[in-house]
Write a structure and sequence with these properties.
alpha+beta; 22% helix; two-stranded antiparallel ribbon; 8-stranded antiparallel β-sheet
């Protein structure tokens, strides 16, 4: 036969229970006092769904917007044309109408440009250029009657570095833009007569 095991429980006195309750109450009072000294309240310690929400808003994204209306200038007069320096090997001549060059509040440089090939083909455009995104848009095309015809629903297109439209890349790099930012009309016109390209 196995001896019967027994557990001895020490009786707890009322005085002991009172001491435990008093210590607990003191601890709670110390916590509340510490929160008060820190300038907070018991609610600051809440978590989860009871945690107070902080007012936070995402920074507004800056969205570029083009001018609502773009006025098309008069057809370029020969007396207002400024020749763009190009190498003879390019096989084209480029001229910009001095009176048409402008810098809009939208950061777009707009100008009338005349491009003539070695064979005599002549094209006239009124267009805009965005330096930051390296894009261009043709607003109007010159006609044989020496007038501008507005382009229906013009769109921005990337500036090509090669091909028949590569002259825009030259204009962007050496005259219209500087390190991704648009030049002022005065700076653009000065660059056309500068001997040294920056």
């Amino acid at each position: 036969m196995h001896p019967t095991s027994s557990v001895y429980c020490r009786p707890v006195s009322w005085g002991f229970l009172q001491k435990v309750m008093i210590d607990y109450a003191r601890t709670c009072l110390l916590v509340v006092a510490a929160v008060g000294l820190l300038g907070g309240s018991p609610a600051v310690l809440a978590f989860g769904k009871d945690k107070p929400r902080q007012n936070y808003s995402e920074p507004a994204e800056v969205i570029w917007q083009e001018l609502a209306e773009v006025a098309i200038p008069a057809y370029p007069d020969a007396s207002n044309l400024a020749q763009v320096p190009v190498e003879k090997s390019a096989g084209i001549a480029i001229d910009i109408d001095r009176t048409s060059v402008s810098l809009g509040q939208d950061g777009v440089v707009r100008f009338a440009v005349v491009v003539q090939s070695a064979r005599g083909a002549r094209n006239v455009f009124y267009e805009g250029m965005r330096c930051g995104s390296a894009q261009y848009k043709i607003y109007a095309i010159g006609t044989s009657e020496q007038k501008f015809r507005a382009v229906q629903n013009p769109r921005w297109a990337p500036i090509a570095e090669e091909g028949p439209n590569a002259f825009r890349d030259l204009l962007r790099d050496y005259h219209i833009c500087h390190r991704g930012s648009p030049r002022s009309p005065q700076e653009i016109l000065r660059s056309l007569t500068a001997r040294d390209r920056e």
